[in-house]
Amino acid sequence: MKNLTVTDWYRQFVRTQVQPGDLCIDATAGNGNDTALLCQLTGPTGQVLAFDIQEKALSSARRRLDALGLSDNCRLILDSHEFMGNYAAPESVSCITFNLGYLPGSDHRTSTHAASTLRALASGLSLLKPGGLMTVCIYSGRDTGFEERDAVLSFVRTLDSRKYLVIQSEYVNRPKHPPIPVLIIRLPPNP
Asked: In terms of pTM, does the model score above 0.85?
């Protein structure tokens, strides 16, 4: 087995979840890696909404999508992920991905923060359709990362177990605060 990165790990679940025609959200577009994957999986009949607060990130994501021929079913949105509820209807989204922290190769002072991330997670949960998946990759160790990590992990522990399945994983033998992947599945209502 190859050495799995945290993104390799959660993308296996995303590939199982997302179907052609789905509506998906990349809550932290960054360089567009998850955006591109979601566009490939939703196909020409689906749609991906990709959020970032940095024009630099969205430009990078646009270049990646253009190079892969995936721009037609994606809307890049210069806005905070906490406002994703303004762009999608409740219970309409199949999958939402979050990669917390900062844009690789850019200024670390511009990063996700606990308060807006918690609002984004709550908004995203209301957008997930029953059976929908949210992935949250928590990068900590720099700047505000520890505060955000602790806030997110506290938040997901409070989610109603009758409505959500929350799975937290960790790399126990990696030094220097390895990323923490969290999966949240919105459970279908009990009959």
From this structure: yes
